[in-house]
Each structure stands twice: as structure tokens, then as C-alpha cells.
């Protein structure tokens, strides 16, 4: 691998993870305008579906699925919708940087699920990383006067991480594990959007901003483009250039980006104790990913959209 290829791979990986970290940048203004979480996510999924569909057509793929593939696709769509819903709801209860950092423990949860469900051995680095992540969470959560984080917000984030971790396990262990990732993404979005449609129908209905409020519509579109299409395409290209493990480790830029926007744009701040917890969690999870024990479960999906799967030696590459 020449130096230019390596540099390009790391640059693309960084762009992908920073793009995903813009979730709160575009979601919070919509909340401030009085648009509820279900409406925000409904429009995000609605706008993302044609973008992913266009990607499929450009690559000359088809949309056909077998009847036997529908049940796992529905389950995966609902798991991802629940993960999106609980994460976006958590933004109403805590700083977005802290929420994104707590969500970043999902690789540790994947390792625990694989141990409990499939008796996969826990490596030494995984055990150390779990301990480190718990210390980091404690530093983020507990201050001199006791708990400083919202209990509801914390439970929502961990619900999001658990749903996402289950998605990763199911998508790699189910009968559709070999489905091209773009097609998987498309149907995950379609079935996931159904959850928000049902919730909106049973609740107060869809909140639609006025058509002349271009700024709000721009935020909807940005949620579909930056944390979705750009993140997906750049991660796919990064794995082609540098492999899966370095790309997965670059995921640490996601919570870092959320912290940056939380401080610069929304005036949120972290104290020294919270900064320490933030870095301990990122370091601990990066050790898990670098150890390779769960990397293969992270390759088909990064935070919101499935990714391409490739061995680090470059000998195999899933059809996207």
C-alpha cells in the first residue's frame, strides 16, 4: 500500500465519521422549532430512502428480495429504528456530546452479547476495555453531589446502544448476512420508517414545518445526506484503501465531533472530570476494536447505515 493510498483512506474515514457526528447539529434546531423526535426521524428516513435507492440504481443493482428474507429485514429495520429513536430522544435529556460518547460503548455490548449468546471467548483486551468503559461512564455520570446525568437520558442512550449492538449481531448471524449492503440499507430504512409512521398515527400526528421555512427543511435534508449518504460512501471507500480495523477505530471521531458541535454551536460544555471520562471511553472502545475480536461485527453497520465488509489484507470485499 503506497503512502498516497493510505493517506486518502484515513482522510475518507475521518470524513465519514465526522459526517455521522453531525447528527445533533441538524437535529437540535428541529427540536428547538417544536418538531418532535418521531417527525424528525420520519423525514430523515423518508429523505434517505430515495438517496440510497439512487445509489442502488447507479450501481446497476436490483431491489428484489425473497419472501424468506422479509422477516429478518423487518426485525433489523425495527431494531435500527428503535436505536435511532432512543438516541434522538436522549438529546432532549442530556448534552449531545455525552450522549454520543455513551453510545460509543456499543462495541463492548457486542462483545458481551457474543460471550453470553455464542460463548465467544472474551480476550484480555476486551475485559480491560469493559472495565475502562465503566470507569469512563462513572466519570461522566457521577459528580461530587451524586448523579449529574439524567437517568432517563442515560437509559435511552443505553437502549440505543443495546438495539444497535443487537442489530450488528443479527445482521452478521442471520440468513441475510450475505445481502448487498446497499439493498440491506434500503429495506432497513423502509421498514424502520414504518415504526415512526405508526407512532405518529397513534400520537399527535406528523409535524410538518411551513414550506417557506427553508432552514428547517434544509436540516431534514442534511440529516439524510451527511450522516447517511456521505458517511456511507466515505466509509466504503476508506475500507477499500486502509482496511476494516483502522476505519472502525476512526469511529472515535463521531463522539468527538458531537462534543465539538455541542460546545461551539449549542454552548454546552464539559468539566475536567467529564473530559477524562470522554477520553477513557474512546480509548477503551478503540482497544476492543483494534484487538479484532469483534471487528467483523462492526463492518456491516456503522451507527446508522451498513457498511461494506472487507478483510484487512484486501482479499475479499462484499458486494455493496
List keywords for this structure.
disordered C terminus; globular; 14 helices; 71% helix; two-stranded antiparallel ribbon; 320 residues; mainly alpha; 2 strands
User: What gyration radius follows from the Cα positions, in whole Å?
Assistant: 19 Å
- How much of the sequence is in beta strands? under 5%
Biggest sheet record: 2 strands, antiparallel
**What would you call the structural class?**
mainly alpha
Q: How far is it from the N-terminal to the C-terminal residue, by CA?
A: 23 Å
Shape from CA axes? Answer: globular
The number of helices is 14
Mean pLDDT: 79
Uncertain segments are 300-319
The largest sheet has its strands arranged as 1-2
Amino acid at each position: 500500500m503506497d503512502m498516497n493510498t493510505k493517506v486518502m483512506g484515513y482522510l475518507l474515514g475521518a470524513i465519514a465519521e465526522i459526517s455521522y457526528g453531525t447528527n445533533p447539529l441538524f437535529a437540535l434546531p428541529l427540536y428547538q422549532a417544536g418538531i418532535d423526535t418521531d417527525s424528525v426521524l420520519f423525514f430523515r428516513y423518508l429523505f434517505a430512502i430515495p438517496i440510497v435507492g439512487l445509489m442502488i440504481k447507479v450501481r446497476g443493482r436490483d431491489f428484489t428480495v425473497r419472501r424468506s428474507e422479509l422477516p429478518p429485514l423487518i426485525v433489523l429495520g425495527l431494531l435500527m429504528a428503535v436505536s435511532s429513536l432512543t438516541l434522538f430522544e436522549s438529546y432532549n435529556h442530556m448534552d449531545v456530546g455525552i450522549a454520543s460518547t455513551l453510545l460509543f460503548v456499543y462495541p463492548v455490548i457486542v462483545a458481551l452479547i457474543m460471550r453470553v449468546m455464542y460463548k465467544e471467548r472474551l480476550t484480555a483486551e476486551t475485559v480491560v476495555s469493559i472495565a475502562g468503559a465503566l470507569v469512563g461512564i462513572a466519570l461522566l455520570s457521577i459528580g461530587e453531589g451524586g448523579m449529574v446525568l439524567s437517568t432517563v437520558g442515560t437509559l435511552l442512550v443505553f437502549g440505543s446502544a443495546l438495539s444497535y449492538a443487537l442489530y450488528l449481531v443479527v445482521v452478521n448471524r442471520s440468513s441475510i448476512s450475505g445481502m448487498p449492503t446497499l439493498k440491506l440499507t434500503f429495506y432497513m430504512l423502509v421498514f424502520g420508517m414504518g415504526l415512526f409512521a405508526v407512532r405518529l398515527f397513534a400520537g399527535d400526528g406528523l409535524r410538518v414545518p411551513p414550506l417557506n421555512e427553508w432552514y428547517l427543511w434544509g436540516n431534514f435534508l442534511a440529516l439524510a445526506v451527511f450522516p447517511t449518504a456521505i458517511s456511507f460512501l466515505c466509509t466504503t471507500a476508506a475500507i477499500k484503501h486502509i482496511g476494516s480495523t483502522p476505519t472502525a477505530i476512526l469511529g472515535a471521531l463521531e463522539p468527538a465531533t458531537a462534543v465539538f458541535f455541542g460546545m461551539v454551536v449549542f454552548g454546552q460544555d464539559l468539566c475536567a472530570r467529564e473530559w477524562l471520562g470522554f477520553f477513557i471511553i474512546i480509548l477503551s472502545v478503540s482497544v476492543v476494536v483494534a484487538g479484532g475480536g469483534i471487528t467483523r461485527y462492526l463492518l456491516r453497520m456503522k451507527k446508522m447505515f451498513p457498511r461494506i465488509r472487507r478483510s484487512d489484507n484486501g482479499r475479499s470485499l462484499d458486494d455493496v
